[in-house]
UniProtKB/TrEMBL annotation:
It comes from Capsulimonas corticalis. Keywords: Membrane, Transmembrane, Transmembrane helix. This is Uncharacterized protein. The keyword Transit peptide does not apply. The chain crosses the membrane at residues 14-33, 91-113, 142-159, 192-211, 232-253, 273-298, 319-340, 360-382. The keyword Membrane applies.
Length: 555
C-alpha cells in the first residue's frame, strides 16, 4: 500500500486497487457484527403499508395507546427503500443496502484522504473512522446520512480550499446541487440538519475572521465576508430545500419536540451523552478526536471555520452518542487538508526515505493480519446470534439483525391459538416494533416510534418497565386496564405473574430464564376458553428478584 511518487503508475494503481478491496472487505465484515434492530421492524411495516396504499402516514394507526396521534414519517423514502430491499432478499437484502451505504461512506473518506496524505496513512485513518462508526452501523435511515454527509462535505471542503467561495468572480453553479441533494436527503433522514448547521458554522466563522481582519488586511477581510454571505445563503437555501417533503416544515418541528422532552432524552441510550457507553466502546472515538484536534493544532494550513465545524460535530457527539459516526465521517473529511499538512511535517522532520519493497510488504502484511482479526470478531459475533436458518445467506441476514432473538415462537403461538385482535396488550419497548411487523392485526402498547409516545405514554412505559410496587405503577396499570401481557422482561412480568387475576399461557423454553418471552392473559370471560386450553405454571416464580436491568431504553 505504498504511495511513493517514484513508484511506477501501474504499481501504484494496483496498490490502490488492492487497498480498496481490502478496505471494502473490512467494512463488510464490520457490518456483519450484529446490532439490536428494534426499529427495523416498524420501518418495514410502515414501508409495506406505504407501498400497498400509495399514501404516507400522518397519524398513528399501529398502537392502541395513542391511536390517532399525529405521526410524521420524514424518513419515508428510506423506509420504502429498506422494504424494497427486504422484498428482494429478505433480511439479507436489508443488510446489503446498509452495507452498501456504509461502504460508500468509508470509500469517500478513503478516496478523499489517499491523494492528500498517502495510502499508508489513509488506510489506517479510514479504518479508524470505521471503528468509531461501528456501534452506529444499523439497518436504519441514518445510514444514508453517513454517505450523504461525507459526499457533501468533501465537495464543500474542495470549494473552500480552492478559494472559490470567497472569489468574487466564481460561479454559483458548483453549489447549486447542494440544495438539491438536501431535498432528497430530507426524505431519507433528518441528518440533513447536521449539514445545515455546519453551513451556518462556516458562515459564522468566516464572518468572525473577516471582521477581525478588516483593519489589518482589508482585501482578505472582504473575501472572508463574501464567503460568509455565500455560506449563509447556501445554508438558507438548503434549509428551504429540506422542506421539499410531504411533511414540509414539520421536519424541524419533530426534532424540536424530541429535544425538549427531558424524560425522553434521558432514557434513550443513543440520545444520551457518551458517558453512558463503556470506555472500551469509546476508544476509537477518543483516537479519532485526538487525531483530528491534533491535526488542527499542528497543521500549517489554518482555517478557523474548519476548527469550529469539527468542534461543533465533536460537542454534538459528546451530547448524543448516536452522532459519533457523523463526527468521525465528517471530521475526517473536513480535516483532510490539516492531516495532509501534518503528514508533510512528519515526513520532513523524520526524513522519510522512499519506500522499500520490504517496508511495503510489512505494511501489507499488517493490513492482512488486521483483516483476519476483524473476520474472527465478525464470525464469533454471528455465531452467537445464529438462528434456525444457519449460516446460509438468509440465516446471516437474520443473525445480523438479531431476528432470532425476537419472540417468533410466541407470535406463532398466538397465531396458532387464535388470539383475538385488538387486545389491550402490554409489551416491552424492545419488541414493540417486531410485534407490529410480525402480527399486523394487533395494535401495540409502545414501540420504537418515540415521537408517537412522547409525554405520558412514554413516561408510563418507563414506570411499567420497572415495577416496584409504587403507587405510580399501580396507577399506570389501572389506567391502561390491560387484557394481555407479552414481554421478554421477567422484571416487567413479575407483578402480573404474582397476581391471581392473571394467568400465564406461554413461556418460551429456548432462552435464558430472565429473557424468555411470557404471555399472560387477564382472567376475563372472553378469554376463559383460551386460558383453560393454554394455561401453564411458572416454575421459578418463587426465586428472588429478576436480574437488574438498565433503566435506559436501548436501541
Amino acid at each position: 500500500m505504498s504511495a511513493n511518487p517514484s513508484t511506477p503508475s501501474s504499481s501504484l494503481r494496483i496498490s490502490r486497487i488492492a487497498a480498496t478491496i481490502l478496505l471494502t472487505i473490512i467494512v463488510l465484515l464490520v457490518c456483519l457484527i450484529p446490532k439490536a434492530e428494534n426499529d427495523l421492524f416498524f420501518e418495514l411495516r410502515t414501508g409495506m403499508d406505504i407501498l400497498r396504499t400509495g399514501h404516507l402516514p400522518h397519524i398513528d394507526t399501529y398502537s392502541w395507546t395513542n391511536r390517532g396521534t399525529r405521526w410524521d414519517v420524514p424518513e419515508w423514502l428510506a423506509f420504502v427503500l429498506y422494504t424494497l430491499a427486504f422484498k428482494a432478499g429478505g433480511f439479507l437484502g436489508t443488510w446489503l443496502l446498509m452495507a452498501l451505504l456504509t461502504v460508500g461512506a468509508v470509500w469517500v473518506v478513503w478516496f478523499w484522504l489517499a491523494p492528500r496524505v498517502g495510502m499508508s496513512w489513509a488506510f489506517p485513518l479510514a479504518n479508524l473512522t470505521l471503528l468509531a462508526m461501528k456501534d452506529c452501523i444499523q439497518e436504519r435511515p441514518y445510514a444514508f446520512s453517513y454517505l450523504l454527509l461525507a459526499v457533501t462535505l468533501a465537495h464543500l471542503t474542495r470549494l473552500r480550499q480552492s478559494g472559490a467561495l470567497a472569489d468574487a468572480g466564481s460561479s454559483w453553479r458548483r453549489l447549486l446541487w447542494l440544495p438539491a441533494i438536501c431535498a432528497l436527503w430530507a426524505n431519507l433522514h433528518q441528518g440533513v440538519l447536521v449539514l445545515i448547521c455546519l453551513l451556518l458554522a462556516y458562515a459564522l466563522a468566516d464572518a468572525i475572521v473577516g471582521i477581525r481582519r478588516r483593519a489589518r488586511e482589508p482585501e482578505e477581510a472582504v473575501a472572508n465576508l463574501r464567503g460568509a454571505r455565500r455560506m449563509l445563503a447556501l445554508a438558507v437555501a438548503c434549509a428551504i430545500a429540506a422542506m421539499a417533503s410531504p411533511y414540509g416544515w414539520r421536519i424541524y418541528w419533530n426534532v424540536l419536540v424530541t429535544l425538549r422532552d427531558h424524560n425522553l432524552m434521558a432514557n434513550v441510550t443513543e440520545w444520551n451523552p457518551v458517558t453512558v457507553l463503556p470506555f472500551a466502546q469509546l476508544e476509537p472515538f477518543f483516537f479519532v478526536s485526538a487525531i483530528l484536534f491534533g491535526a488542527l493544532v499542528f497543521s500549517r494550513y489554518r482555517d478557523f471555520a474548519d476548527t469550529l465545524a469539527i468542534a461543533a460535530l465533536f460537542v454534538e457527539s459528546l451530547l448524543h452518542a448516536r452522532n459519533i459516526a457523523l463526527f468521525a465521517v465528517g471530521g475526517m473529511v473536513i480535516a483532510a487538508p490539516h492531516l495532509a499538512s501534518c503528514v508533510q511535517r512528519i515526513h520532513g522532520s523524520l526524513n522519510f526515505a522512499p519506500r522499500s519493497l520490504s517496508r511495503t510488504l510489512l505494511l501489507s502484511f499488517g493490513a492482512l493480519i488486521y483483516t483476519a482479526l476483524v473476520a474472527c470478531v465478525a464470525a464469533a459475533s454471528i455465531k452467537d446470534r445464529e438462528g434456525a436458518k444457519g449460516y446460509g445467506p438468509a440465516g446471516i441476514g437474520e443473525a445480523v439483525a438479531r431476528v432470532p432473538s425476537y419472540p417468533e415462537d410466541a407470535c406463532a403461538f398466538m397465531d396458532r391459538e387464535g388470539f383475538p385482535a385488538n387486545l389491550r396488550m402490554l409489551n416491552n419497548f424492545e419488541i414493540g416494533g417486531y410485534l407490529m411487523w410480525r402480527r399486523p392485526g394487533q395494535p401495540v402498547f409502545v414501540d420504537g416510534r418515540l415521537d408517537v409516545y412522547v409525554g405520558r405514554t412514554f413516561d408510563d412505559m418507563l414506570v411499567l418497565a420497572r415495577p416496584d410496587g409504587s403507587p405510580a405503577w399501580e396507577r399506570a396499570a389501572a389506567h391502561y386496564d390491560f387484557d394481555c401481557v407479552v414481554t421478554t422482561s421477567l422484571r416487567q412480568a413479575r407483578p402480573f405473574l404474582a397476581d391471581p387475576n392473571w394467568t400465564l399461557v406461554y413461556l418460551d423454553p429456548k432462552r435464558p430464564y430472565h429473557m424468555r418471552c411470557r404471555i399472560l392473559l387477564r382472567r376475563r370471560p372472553q378469554f376463559a376458553a383460551l386460558i383453560e386450553r393454554c394455561r401453564r405454571a411458572e416454575p421459578r416464580l418463587a426465586l428472588g428478584a429478576a436480574p437488574p436491568q438498565s433503566s435506559l431504553v436501548r436501541y
